[in-house]
Amino acid sequence: xxxILELTLGCxxxxxxxxxxxxxxxxxxxxxxxxxxxxxxxxxxxxxxLRVLELRAGNQQILGVFAKKVIQKRTQFGPYVxxxxxxxxxxxxSRLVLQVLxxxxxxxxxxxxxxxxxxxxxxxLARNQEEQxxxxxxxxxxxxxxxxxxxxxxxxxxxxxxxxxxKFMETSAVFIKEESDVSPLPVVAVAKLSNLRPIxxxxxxxxxxxxxxxxxxxxxxxx
Length: 223
Fold this sequence. Notes:
Pfam families: PRDM2_PR (PF21549)
Radius of gyration: 24 Å
Shape: elongated
CATH topology of the largest domain: Beta-clip-like
CATH class of the largest domain: Mainly Beta
Structural class: mainly beta
Domain SET: 48-162
Number of strands: 16
Keywords: Transcription, Transcription regulation
InterPro entries: SET_dom, SET_dom_sf, Zinc_finger
CATH architecture of the largest domain: Beta Complex
Largest sheet: 5 strands, mixed
Helix content: under 10%
Order of helices and strands: HEEHEEEEEEEEEEHEEHEE
Protein name: SET domain-containing protein
Number of domains: 2
């Protein structure tokens, strides 16, 4: 319950403390603070832009990162910024699950909110070879994204695991192909995230490995 002191407003013209607005001089003119973008948004390079791709319940925005100019092949971005954690507090099926090796331990790069990471947290995963523009890999305990092809303006940046990093992530770097689409499902995510369905519950035709090194590996999962 609020006290009288908490409800009073001072009117300098009247020289009085009043409950509510001054009836003689009217309400105060309220100036709002400037809205500051999150840390992640502030780190976005000038030749990249964020676009809202979908608006979900609770005003949740699904964002994508797009090029504003041509980005050359072999352009490196990073390192990826996130909180080191033994478990993920936030999982988004459209983003890669990332881990690093630190002091002999394996940790997730967790980004529970936009002030815990950099712009790379907005990069969505690639669903097939055609839309993959970036490859994710670990170097000296950090994760970087590097372009695998020139990226044209207005093209979305999408990423998938490099072959060696996929092994570190305890996955075969597979793309699970269903009848209607191609969608990735890292094994490490299935093993460590309780809100995902078991692999056996997903209808699967066949699986294709990452092509970051131009090698195709086929794996079959039980239905």
